[in-house]
Amino acid sequence: MPEGGLLAIFAHPDDETFGLGGTMARYAARGIPVTMLCATRGEVGEISPGTGATPDTLGRFREEELRVAMAMLGVTDVRMMGFRDSGMMGTPENDDERALMKAHPDAVTHMIVRQIRELRPAVVATWDESGGYGHPDHVAVHHHATAAFHAAGDASRYPTAGEPWQPERLFYTAIPIKEFMRLMEEMRAASGEVPSVAEDDNAMAELRRVEPNCIIDVGDLVAVKEQAMLAHRTQISDMDPFMNLPEASRNRFFGKEYFYQAHPALPADTMLDDLFA
Q1: What pTM did the predictor assign?
Q2: For 213, what's the count of Cα atoms within 13 Å in the CB-facing half-sphere?
Q3: Distance CA 155, CA 197 (A)
Q4: Could you tell me if 82 and 43 are in contact, meaning their C-beta atoms sit under 8 angstroms apart?
Q5: Three-class DSSP category at 217
């Protein structure tokens, strides 16, 4: 596979489309290699009515939804790490021995290092420390992907994971909390409800976050991004609060994707508009 592309590392199917679906589509259309590496199949997610999924089959459904969504965005290289969804913090699923949050950190990092060394990407993108809304799998992926980024170029680390390769840049998704909260208020006004993960505004606001230093305009790709979101049909439908927002609100929110370049560090007040610039 050609080197120098984008490797996106996220926890569950649909994390990627919401956070950087437009960016992935833009680079894929330019012929830049884009790979989606997903840690779990999202086996503990919600199940929208009418999809035919059950708790026992949800993981299979969500993997297929991920592949369909990625195809819509022009991404054909989708890889699964095979851990189990850990569920939200404090739920019984946390104790499942197959759960990502129960996995030994070195084992997870080794798997990601192997992928980096095989794919030889220029850019790695993953969750920031907040995990968006604090999901333990999101936070775990942040830590494991960051560790793997820094280890992949060191020949003395994980010597069984392939020839060393150091990606040039590490980015975290970094939706500004003020923009997210503004969207939640517009959602309440439009439909009277918000996603369950956003019901506790104070908890969301208190999570440790980074401020974006890269904003990519994907306004011309909002329609395809929304279609890819809807491909995750066990998780979102056209009746979802996100889809019931006024078109202007959806275009504003989904038309920009926010990132923080974590490595190498950028000078203060720098603002990029391209992960490869």
Answers
A1: 0.94
A2: 18
A3: 41
A4: no
A5: strand
